[in-house]
Amino acid sequence: MPLSLSRAQRILSISSTSWFVVAVIGQWLFVSYMIAFYGTSVVHNNPESWNDVVIVGHIPGDYFGNFMFILHIALAAIITIGATLQLIPQLRFSFPRFHRYNGRLFIYTAIILSLGGLFLVWGRNAMLSLNGGISISLNAILIIWFCFQTIRKAKARDFVAHRQWALRAFIVVSGVWFFRVGFMAWIMINQEAKWSTPNLDGPFDLIWSYANYLLPLAILELYLLALKRQKKSTKIMTASLLFGCTILTALGVVAAFLLMWQPNM
User: In terms of Cα–Cα distance, which of 204, 194, 180 is closest to 258?
Assistant: First the structure.
């Protein structure tokens, strides 16, 4: 029996949902790590431990910079939780008021987080290379741009475009998470950190520093195109790509949790 268009659409929907479920689990595990590690360091007054897991965490005497760093971490945890809740259709339709207020929290927190990230990179030199600083800055610029577009489309009551821009914002806001998960998936596939260096200036590092958010963004655009196109082949090919991404994401999440996050929780 030939595959119907509605069936192809259903397969595309299942593939996107599968990836989202894996991503939500992975992002909440990341949040759990942030709360456990940084929360414990604050409670036990041990901010020096931040330097064990980030490039520049605690600097003795830099009270403003240290405050900005831990605020950045706290906002990252808040926005990660809020973003995943924002994209659950059942919550969006059943609790529209929560969706609106949580959306505003997500948007404004994302903008503040991006500005804070720019300060940490260029004000505290929290980067291993100039390439890393540029890639993080581009990510921050995209976050701010996508957030403003999300707000603009909502005010215009163009909710189809609003949802698309919100999805784009979610992708670029998740850049830090994508970087870690993708890096660990790469290590698991190659059984080594191939084409990578401790300073993150190897061939893979140079590419992944931008691809960690631009590649998922490109895949999102393919997904949005497949939703509009009334062609079975487009929907099935996109669904196949998303199923592959789901497997890679799951691999990266498991590796990141076991090798990076759990040991510090």
Answer: 180
